[in-house]
Amino acid sequence: MALRIKKTWGRIKRKYFGAARSHKRILKDQVEKLLARVEQPVALETGCIRKLDEGTESTLTIASLMRDRGTFYSFELRPEHIAISQQCCGEENRFVNYVEGDSVANLKAAVADGRLAQIDFAFLDSANDGDHIFNEFKAIESNFAPGACLVVDDVLWADKGRTLVPYIEASDAWDSQVLNVENGIMVATLR
User: Fold this and answer.
1) What is the pLDDT along the chain (191 residues), one digit of tens a residue?
2) Cα–Cα distances in Å, from 183 out to 51, 99, 110, 133?
3) Which residues contact 143 (CB under 8 A, 6 or more apart)?
4) Is residue 61 part of a domain?
5) Which of 15, 36, 40, 109 could bridge 20 with an S-S bond, Cβ 3.0-4.6 Å?
6) Considering the domain boundaries, does residue 42 fall inside one?
7) Antiparallel, parallel or unpaired: β 185-190 and 144-153
8) Number of domain units in the chain
């Protein structure tokens, strides 16, 4: 019983007082910067809201800021997560284009059919697997517009940032920083 209370308090503390709020603020700031410089941006995320009490609520944050000022895609493997995200987003769902299935395959298909011909913003937050996140990035890498923003969640946790963070940091094409917020978040801008 005490362990459940401790875990619940930790989640509440992170969500309302700590790192999760900072995490959401970083995401919000990056989308606002995008909207200030691009009239009709194309934005995407991999991994939508998976729990009703999730701290960052990325899908809702991006959709509520973008509204009808561009196109926003959310790539998600599991239909039950899409259903939870739709419930959490409510009216903002009309600004989200959910794409169900494997994110890497669907990103490649969206690039091939022109939906992602030019990407202005990407938030990668799907599987906690460094190879998978890197493969998502490689599927869209050549389609980022100059000045595009890439945000990658949880890069200091598990091995999610193991391959992508050093790749971006070694690249002459990207300016990046890894922020020690919650489980780490990388923000990179294409030069």
Assistant:
1) 666 665 565 555 555 444 445 778 899 999 999 999 999 999 999 999 877 666 558 999 999 999 999 999 999 999 999 999 999 899 999 999 999 999 999 999 999 999 999 999 999 999 889 999 999 999 999 999 999 999 999 999 878 899 999 999 999 999 999 998 888 999 999 99
2) 18, 26, 29, 15
3) 111, 116, 117, 118, 119
4) yes
5) 15
6) yes
7) antiparallel
8) 1
